[in-house]
């Protein structure tokens, strides 16, 4: 393109943009069915497709658009729903997507229309939010273009790149919450995908140009390190929040997190440069020797030049030092919120319930879905809606007052790190101990360290805290977040590791329930989805419409194990059953009685010393 042509093209683009600045409606029909795919080249499997395709369509809209998705569940054997991750759904809480929180699950043969406006900017994604369903492939990027972004004039072209873990089995065929797995060891993925493939992705680039890369971890479990050999970059967005540009060379992208980065190309075209992603193996209980933890793809300056193997920075996490997202400053300079009107302090633990299986807890409550979607309880409980009891103990409800400043103090007593996500908001991250970097694992081996307001008083919080919608709690460390309850709705707060969500690591914020009642009422189409799913849509968490404070019959978590049982003890018990069985076999074959005695003695169940 010569100079004149380029100028004309620019002008045409401006005119076009001016004409298009009127918000438009984007309507998509999603026929959700099973299709086959083999993204890692190792195993073909059933995945959730849309209109017969997988990878799923990337949704691209402009700020202010209305998005309408007519979803038909053609799976035949599974319920479904879609969550629009990061979308505030201000006034449209019923479009948020999590089953039994804001809607009934959509059963096979049934449709639901999602219809909402997008006043936000940046990089988002959509995924199934009914039981554990998105690891089966039902997830993809949702990009909101914004010609007013402060960095809009700073790049020449953009690319979206997703990364994710990948399993060869359907979620329903992966054993997880069961007595044989008392420690709750998460299923180890079979591979890791870069933009839904392992075959090399070459990002075609031109020397001297600058590109916007939108990076999204759409995985179910494992965080990814990201770097580009011999290139630094500038972070300009996290989770839909523009940040002042910040130079970095390595990122840690937990599941559900997004980063937009500007990468400026070198002037030479003699070489291609590896883009490296390394799965965080610290999260994995076991690593098979064939599991490919790292992937190399390329910034391709010259397709006929070599595509060199990456010089790996490292194998273990502590040597890859990622940029600390806590230090980012929002471009809009939203100031630290004032001291909170309400503080919610929760301890995260993993423990076993009566069936011997591992569960996850906020303050000893493992989220258990109610009999009525919590939003529908709000809409059908009149003046009782402000009483948290209506929502049942095991949805772990907190009623938030309209426009109150809310602070959540989260003490992670677990030795694993967890990426926590809040629906309907982004939140200010005002404290995290320890911070990303070399010290991130400092508390992993000793005792858990709870947030200490004397050591980290609010006077030490950043003046312009970073905001995002998914934030990582360090192993046995803590974080503090703040947000304003200015978005009436029922908003789920949960760990985004889908395995941990299925173990109950979630709670419900019922924000300004009287305002929700003013904004919406239960619609005929919502009722018909519930009827098709055979789920109650009125009354309290126990589906009681007569006495809203009578929770008889509500779903509950299982009872606790008798005091003193530990995961180790359960292993010993399970193991002793197995070894007793093996012992029997040995006795039958060899008649050696000593082995049986051994099997019996290992049946002693360990007690926790407390
Ligand atoms: C969805 O796709 C399936 C398989 O192609 C087809 O049989 C069905 O008629 C489609 N349903 C809708 C509502 O488009
Ligand atoms: C979407 O919602 C808007 C606003 O409530 C409404 O006017 C429009 O009819 C809806 N469209 C569909 C297809 O439901
Ligand atoms: C979207 O971006 C514009 C600037 O382009 C900014 O003024 C606005 O606050 C952003 N909206 C949200 C919801 O972040
Ligand atoms: C990643 O995949 C999406 C959809 O499959 C595609 O639109 C996008 O261009 C791909 N990105 C790159 C860098 O190839
Ligand atoms: C590429 O060349 C331009 C113009 O000469 C210069 O400003 C820029 O710094 C160079 N970039 C690199 C990465 O060396
Ligand atoms: C691309 O790489 C080939 C092979 O190394 C080299 O011969 C060629 O000059 C390069 N082209 C450019 C434009 O740098
Ligand atoms: C990258 O993966 C390959 C194959 O799994 C392995 O040989 C190599 O050690 C890995 N490098 C790192 C740093 O993990
Ligand atoms: C959880 O239960 C244990 C044992 O009953 C108790 O000691 C602890 O205080 C409880 N924790 C919370 C946060 O309620
Ligand atoms: C909090 O920190 C202060 C100052 O270091 C210390 O005196 C206090 O014991 C700590 N509180 C707790 C509960 O650990
Ligand atoms: C929701 O909308 C209300 C009213 O316009 C506004 O005050 C509030 O800031 C919005 N909240 C969010 C999270 O978008
Ligand atoms: Cu978790």
From TrEMBL:
Every Plastocyanin-like domain range: 31-148, 158-303, 367-514
GO molecular function: copper ion binding; ferroxidase activity
One Pfam family from the record: Cu-oxidase_2
Highest taxon in the source lineage: Eukaryota
Residue ranges of the TM segments: 570-592
CDD domains named in the record: CuRO_1_Fet3p, CuRO_2_Fet3p_like, CuRO_3_Fet3p
Bilayer topology term: Single-pass type I membrane protein
Name of the featured protein: Multicopper oxidase type 2
Organism annotation: Penicillium cataractarum
């Amino acid at each position: 393109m010569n100079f004149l042509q380029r100028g004309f093209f620019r002008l045409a683009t401006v005119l076009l943009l001016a004409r298009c600045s009127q918000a438009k409606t984007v309507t998509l029909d999603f026929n959700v069915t099973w299709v086959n795919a083999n993204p890692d080249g190792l195993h073909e499997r059933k995945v959730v497709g849309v209109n017969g395709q997988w990878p799923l369509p990337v949704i691209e809209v402009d700020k202010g658009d209305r998005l309408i998705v007519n979803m038909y569940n053609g799976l035949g054997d599974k319920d479904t729903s879609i969550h629009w991750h990061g979308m505030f759904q201000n006034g449209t809480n019923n479009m948020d997507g999590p089953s039994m929180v804001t809607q009934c699950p959509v059963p096979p043969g049934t449709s639901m229309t999602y219809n909402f406006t997008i006043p936000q900017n940046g990089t988002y994604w959509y995924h199934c939010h009914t039981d554990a369903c998105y690891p089966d492939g039902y997830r993809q990027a949702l990009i909101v273009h914004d010609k007013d972004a402060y960095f809009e004039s700073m790049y020449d072209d953009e690319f979206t790149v997703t990364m994710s873990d990948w399993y060869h089995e359907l979620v329903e065929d992966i054993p997880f919450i069961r007595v044989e797995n008392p420690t709750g060891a998460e299923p180890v993925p079979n591979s890791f995908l870069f933009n839904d493939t392992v075959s090399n992705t070459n990002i075609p680039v031109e020397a001297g140009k600058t590109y916007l890369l939108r990076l999204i971890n759409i995985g179910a479990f494992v965080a990814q390190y990201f770097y580009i050999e011999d290139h630094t970059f500038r972070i300009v967005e996290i989770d839909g929040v523009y940040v002042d540009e910040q130079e970095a060379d390595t990122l840690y992208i937990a599941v559900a997190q997004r980063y937009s980065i500007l990468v400026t190309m070198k002037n030479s075209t003699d070489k291609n440069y590896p883009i490296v992603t390394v799965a965080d193996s610290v999260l994995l209980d076991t690593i098979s020797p064939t599991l490919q933890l790292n992937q190399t793809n390329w910034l391709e300056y010259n397709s006929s030049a070599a595509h060199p193997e990456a010089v790996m920075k490292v194998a273990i996490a502590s040597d890859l030092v990622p940029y600390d997202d806590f230090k980012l400053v929002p471009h809009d300079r939203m100031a630290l919120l004032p001291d909170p009107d309400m503080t919610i302090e929760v301890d995260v633990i993993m423990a076993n319930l009566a069936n011997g299986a591992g569960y996850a807890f906020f303050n000893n409550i493992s989220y258990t879905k109610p009999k009525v979607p919590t939003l529908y309880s709000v809409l059908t409980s009149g003046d009782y809606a402000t009483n948290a009891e209506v929502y049942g103990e095991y949805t772990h409800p907190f009623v938030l007052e309209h426009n109150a400043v809310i602070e959540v103090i989260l003490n992670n007593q677990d030795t694993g790190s967890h990426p926590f996500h809040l629906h309907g908001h982004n939140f200010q991250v005002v404290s995290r101990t320890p911070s990303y970097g070399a010290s991130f694992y400092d508390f992993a081996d000793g005792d858990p360290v709870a947030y200490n307001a004397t050591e980290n008083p609010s006077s030490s919080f950043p003046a312009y805290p970073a905001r995002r919608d998914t934030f990582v709690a360090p192993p046995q460390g803590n974080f503090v977040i703040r947000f304003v309850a200015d978005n009436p709705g029922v908003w789920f707060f949960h760990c985004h590791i889908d395995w941990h969500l299925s173990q109950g690591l979630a709670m419900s914020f019922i924000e300004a329930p009287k305002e929700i009642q003013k904004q919406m009422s239960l619609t005929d189409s919502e009722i018909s989805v519930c009827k098709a799913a055979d789920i109650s849509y009125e009354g309290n968490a126990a589906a009681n419409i007569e006495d809203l404070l009578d929770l008889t019959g509500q779903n509950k978590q299982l009872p606790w194990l008798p005091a003193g049982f530990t995961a180790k003890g359960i292993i010993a018990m399970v193991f002793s059953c197995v070894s007793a069985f093996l012992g029997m076999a040995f006795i039958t074959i060899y008649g050696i009685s000593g082995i049986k005695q051994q099997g019996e003695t290992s049946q002693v169940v360990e007690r926790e010393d407390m």
